[in-house]
Amino acid sequence: MTPIKSAWDAVGGDPALLSRVSTVVRRAALGAKLPVRELARSCVGACALAAAELGARRAGLAEVPEVRVDDGAVATAFRSERQLLVDGRAPVVFAPLSRFWRTADGWVRTHANYPHHRARLLTALGLPEDAPAPVEDVAARLAERCAREVEETVYGAGGLAVALRTPAEWAAHEQAAAVAGRPLVERGRLDSAPTRVLPSVENASPLLPAAGLRVLDLTRVLAGPVATRTLALLGADVLRVDPPHLPELPDQHADTGFGKRSAALDLATDRGAFEELLAAADVVVTGYRPGALDRFGLSPEALAERRPGLVVAQVSAWGAYGPWGGRRGFDSLVQVATGIAAVEGSADGPGALPAQALDHGTGYLLASAVLRALTEQAYDGGSRFVRLALARTAYWLTDGLERGADGHLPYDGPDAWLAETDSGLGRLRYARPAVSFAGAPADWARSPVPWGTDAARWV
C-alpha cells in the first residue's frame, strides 16, 4: 500500500479520489534513514484531499479539485518553527536543558522548554531552580544514574525525561503493544445528531472548505496547533484558548498562530464563558495529555452531550491507553522512546529526524480527520470524535511506510516556499502553506497576534 493511500484510508477517504492527487518529487527533501519524506508527503496530501473533497461538496462542484503535493513546500512546512524569523531573530527551538544526556548506562533525553517543566526536572535531580550552572550540574547528576531510573524519577516529579531505546527494546514495552493495536486514526460517532447543513461556498475565490466553521483550539505545541493552523488557512474561525497562568512560548505561538485569534481563559473559574463558546462551536480540538481536561467536562462524550453535532479531535503523545497513556510527552521524546533516535543515530550517539515530523505529520492527519468528519456529517449526521497519538504515527513511520523513488528534481532549500509579513509580533519570515489544491488559498488571511490578545468570544 502506498503511503498516501495508508493515510487516506486512515481517515476514511474514498480510494477513488486518490487519482486527484499528483506529487512533485524532490531529492534530498527531509533526508533521513527512515522514510520521513514519504510520511510528510502523505499527511499533507491526505489533508489537502480532505479539504478539496469538503470544498467540492460545499461549492456544488461536479468533481473534487485536483491536489498538488510538492515535496519542497512540504519539507519547508515541516520545519516551519525553524524557518521562522521574528524581526530577523531566529527562534529558540530547544532550551538549554532540552537535549540528550549521557547516563551511567546509556542516554536520556529531557524536555524543559516550559519553565514549569524545567523546574520539575531540576527538583527531580535535587538541584535548585536557580542553579548557577544548570547544564553542568544536570550532566553530572545524570552521569551517575541509569537512564530508566532517571526516566521514572523525573516522571514522578511531573517532569519530562525518556530513556533511549532501540526499536527492539521499544517493541518489548507494554506501551508499544498498546499503540500497535490501535489504528493510525481512531474515529467514530458519539450520537445520532442530525446531518450538518453547511452554507454554500459556490463561486467563492479562494475556495475555503471550512468557511464559517468555528473551531475551539485547546492545544499546545506542536501537533494540535499545526492542525488548527491548517483549519484556519481553510477558512475556519479558530480561537485558541490557553490558561492565563500557562502562556505559550512566544516563538511557538508565532509559528502556529497564523490565521487564529488568541484568548486566555481559566476553565476553573470562567466556566460560563467557556460554555458560551462551546454552544456555538463546530469543532473542539484538544492537545493535553489524556484525561487532563475531563474534570472540566471536556471528554468527547460530555462535549457532544452539551453540543450535539460537534466534532471533537484529540491528540496526545503516547495515546489514551496503555501504561503510558497518562504521561506527558513531546515529539523529541517519542522519537527517543520508540527507537527512532537510535536508528537515526551513529556510533557517537543518538540522532533525530530532520524535522519534528511526528508532530507535523500528526497535525496534518488530525486536520484531515476533522475535515473528513465534517464531510461525513453532511450526509450521515452524528457527533464525531477523532483521536491520534504521536507514538502511533511513529509506529507507522518505523513499521508501515514504504520509501519511494528519489525523483529528478532537487530540493535546493526552503527559500522558494518562504514569505514575509508584518504582524503584532514584528516582521515575520515564515513557511507558506503546503496544503494545495485547485482554488485553494495561497496564504493565511491574518498574521499571528500576541498571546492572549483577543476576548474569549466568537466574532
Describe the overall structure:
By secondary structure, the chain is α/β, with parallel strands linked by helices. Helix content is 36%, strand content 16%. The protein is built from 17 helices and 17 strands. It has helices at residues 3-10, 36-59, 71-77, 80-83, 115-124, 134-143, 147-156, 167-171, 174-180, 223-233, 250-256, 271-279, 300-306, 331-337, 340-343, 357-380, 390-399; strands at residues 21-24, 26-27, 67-70, 85-86, 100-102, 107-110, 161-163, 186-189, 214-218, 237-242, 260-264, 283-286, 311-316, 384-389, 409-410, 418-423, 426-431. The strands form 5 sheets. Strands 8-14-13-12-9-10-11 form a 7-stranded mixed sheet, sandwiched between helices. Strands 4-17-16 form a 3-stranded antiparallel sheet. Strands 5-6-7 form a 3-stranded antiparallel sheet, sandwiched between helices. β12 (283-286), α13 and β13 (311-316) form a beta-alpha-beta unit. α2 (36-59) packs parallel to α16 and α16 (357-380) packs across α17. The longest helix is centred in the first third of the chain and has 24 residues, at 36-59.
Features:
alpha/beta; 459 residues; 17 strands; globular; seven-stranded mixed beta sheet; three-stranded antiparallel beta sheet; 17 helices
**N- to C-terminal separation?**
44 Å
Number of helices: 17
As a percent range, the share of helical residues equals 25-40%
Instruction: Report the uncertain regions.
Output: none
Largest sheet properties: 7 strands, mixed
Residues in β-strands, percent? 15-25%
Radius of gyration: 21 Å
SS class: alpha/beta
Which shape, going by the Cα principal axes?
A: globular
Number of strands: 17
> Strand arrangement, largest sheet?
8-14-13-12-9-10-11
Average pLDDT works out at 96
